[in-house]
Predict the structure.
Amino acid sequence: MTQLTEPSSLLSVSTEQLRLFTKIAVLYHEEGLSQGDISQRLNLSQARVSRYLKNAVDLGIVRTSIVQPAGIYVGLEKALEEKYQLREVVVVDVMDGASLGMRLGSSAATYLETTIEANDYVGISSWSTTLLHTVEAMRSRPRKIANEVIQLIGGVGSPQAQMQASRLVSHLAELTSAKPYYMGCPGLVANQQIREAFLGDPAVAASVEAWERLTTLLVGIGTFPASPLWQASGNALSSAEEGELSRAGAVGEICLRFFDINGVPMKPAIEERVISIDAEAMMQVPRRVGVAGGMGKLDAIRGAVTGGWINVLITDADVARQLLERPQL
């Protein structure tokens, strides 16, 4: 029998060789025999069995077929990764009876548990119900899986909401056996002088300094105009500040740093009152994970991925599909 190692097409192979390639493929792929078993059974060397299995693939005798289970969107994820040059996309299927926030949080928790490393310095924004669901869904590990957990923005909202921000940082640090860094100050203060006074506090200054060590960001993506929940928190923008942002075309924010539909950062007057990591520092962090979903946040999410505010996106299937379409102006 003529030895064939690199067949170019079915027409270039004899019927006898095709029969042998097919038989070996059936024994290996359908009957589950090892290459060693096949070599003994057919009196062939194991190297030749391996080569003939490759021939079967090259000729199309063996074809790999992946059947994606319902609710799995690998193709959609890949398309988004390519369109927006993202490191990774996780698309979540929303099931009846399950809240979107809880589904996003569960998926984000799984992603973090499998990707955070012991030498990671993780920054987390505090004003996000979805991030709260994320941390609540994470499992405690017996070993250290992060180095530091650092709050990215002062507490935003009522005193109770500011306490919740500290608890979020504390709980994530406990789950990852990391050292926590807190922002013991409001995220939005009355004026620039008060902001400078808080930044001069040694504890706050230590957290700001820790931002330089960040390797991973975990952030929510806020909308503009702000949600009713945020407006009711006691930290609503003034009408003049809202007017400025609206005229500039703001669609969203991360840590109260605003951007337009193309992700272009803005420098509104409100920045003089904000105590949080700034846009430039955020962009320097190697991995920036945004967790957000719901059609009401579509423009904000589009701006965040277009402008490079995040390079890992965890969102729902409806938003993911719309992100592949051209924005409706």
Notes: The chain has a mean pLDDT of 88. Strands lie at 88-92, 121-124, 148-151, 179-181, 216-219, 222-223, 250-254, 257-260, 287-291, 312-316. The chain has two domains: 10-58, 74-323. The first helix runs from residue 15 to 30.
